[in-house]
């Protein structure tokens, strides 16, 4: 080997070794953790930084303000500063941050971000920022006033073997039967309710020959079933039975009828027909609403009595409706195809109906005198960045952190109810949230999966972290407001709350904010199941996806006050609120019959009904809940002991008809009442106001139903 060649080899080796030593000796600084949680009353918080190969160097520790942080100088004491190091510096650096323990009730969790910037003589490692959460120690679970309470009676499994589902429940006061549905097994179950503490199965009707089953309603001895076609993109039907399960009639309605209800006067039946597309989106039927006139009785019912309303007239005003806030999710569909009517609520005078168009975040108003759609209006969004509207949105940080985020939530309600205050109708909505999710199209994505606009979200790195907001489910159908690929706004579906809207002004009057999450997170009776799914007991399993997920809603008037009962589909249970004054709503009670220690009990509540004391054999009020996952009916007695008669009006007195059975002639009431009388096919026979008697001399012998204006129903037998 020549001397020159040997010299070159030594020189190259020296350079490589020098570079290696130089790389090994590089000074680096990083936070030990990017995720830190502390309590407001902790005092001082020590934040650790790891310094590798100390040398003369410096870096700025930057305290980031909004939009990076929701906490500020009133919550902690720390300023942006320069950190200087030398070769003698410790490899573990500690920043001490005094946490301010104030006496102010704040958002359950606030956070601030620290970053390492402008390094000199060193580099910033992978953990160049940290998010520090402060849990407020004044924030507590909402306190129930317990003016009424739900007392658990028991649960009943119609299948007898935990082999079915149970989505909807309806009650008939004449036969004292419950009617429940299982869309999985396609069965209508008829349950004996004459003894609420000992329910039993009367009969189970296979709905397969009719197509299927998605919903049930009952009134005046008539059972109405929403039955989708076996091919759900084709028109479905409504099937009528008597309370023994004997088939009466079947008529055609729109595609995929998913909810069914009677008008309060019993003259009409309505269905919300979702019209969902096929999985490959090659067929996308229009969402519609069907109205069935049954005033002539079920035996004479024909297709001529069915009116199906569509939204094709609104296709030409699509851009205007979208600009107003109504969502259109699938751009290639028409607006009438994109609309998916979900739930119906009808005014007490049977003159108007409101239909939630869930995925489109809209309400349709129906004039039931003319059977026409008179208006469609958007519900708007809820700003999750506002204190009181926080959400726990990560399922993998092992911490309960109900915090504010730069997200707007569409209300997108499932269940809807209405009531009147001072002559104005108010809508009460259970804001579940629902995405369009099919094989050929899905709007579901996460914050970490989308590009965020640098101007709108300078904090994108922090947001996309999985222990912050990265795993939160959002929609890809809204938020990208310009032509590039990045999102300027973030939208999720469902507000984890219930709301009250004024139907005249079409504005939000009340929203329960973060009540549902605060209660289930901070009340020790249920906190171990905070944001658990309905199929397991994993805490926070649904934090990134609609949380407790309010689903069903029903209202009841007790002693002059109006109460709302809201089911939480995922964590389970029923929330109770006094909504008598929509401007002064009060939390009343929460009960959950799900097992906390081990998975079991009643899981996946959906449909919920209130059963009046006057319509039961025990003279007690009940709430019945249909639980989809466990396939059970859970029953609660509504205890009104704490309602003061000095504060509230007395309930309507017991209504009695006598003699009963009766010979043709006169039957008497025990008190004055407004009434309507129907034969057993549902045909209206007589009606009167301020009456004390009914003249039955011209009636045929048989069974009749008398319904008062308060909704009390009695059976009359005329011999």
From TrEMBL:
<dbReference type="GO" id="GO:0007154">
    <property type="term" value="P:cell communication"/>
</dbReference>
<dbReference type="InterPro" id="IPR038081">
    <property type="entry name" value="CalX-like_sf"/>
</dbReference>
<dbReference type="InterPro" id="IPR052956">
    <property type="entry name" value="Mesenchyme-surface_protein"/>
</dbReference>
<dbReference type="InterPro" id="IPR026444">
    <property type="entry name" value="Secre_tail"/>
</dbReference>
<feature type="domain" description="Calx-beta">
    <location>
        <begin position="18"/>
        <end position="117"/>
    </location>
</feature>
<dbReference type="InterPro" id="IPR055188">
    <property type="entry name" value="Choice_anch_I"/>
</dbReference>
<dbReference type="Pfam" id="PF03160">
    <property type="entry name" value="Calx-beta"/>
</dbReference>
<keyword id="KW-0677">Repeat</keyword>
<keyword id="KW-0106">Calcium</keyword>
<keyword id="KW-0732">Signal</keyword>
<dbReference type="Pfam" id="PF22494">
    <property type="entry name" value="choice_anch_I"/>
</dbReference>
<dbReference type="Pfam" id="PF18962">
    <property type="entry name" value="Por_Secre_tail"/>
</dbReference>
<dbReference type="InterPro" id="IPR011044">
    <property type="entry name" value="Quino_amine_DH_bsu"/>
</dbReference>
<dbReference type="InterPro" id="IPR015943">
    <property type="entry name" value="WD40/YVTN_repeat-like_dom_sf"/>
</dbReference>
<dbReference type="InterPro" id="IPR003644">
    <property type="entry name" value="Calx_beta"/>
</dbReference>
<protein>
    <submittedName>
        <fullName>Por secretion system C-terminal sorting domain-containing protein</fullName>
    </submittedName>
</protein>
<feature type="signal peptide">
    <location>
        <begin position="1"/>
        <end position="25"/>
    </location>
</feature>
<dbReference type="GO" id="GO:0016020">
    <property type="term" value="C:membrane"/>
</dbReference>
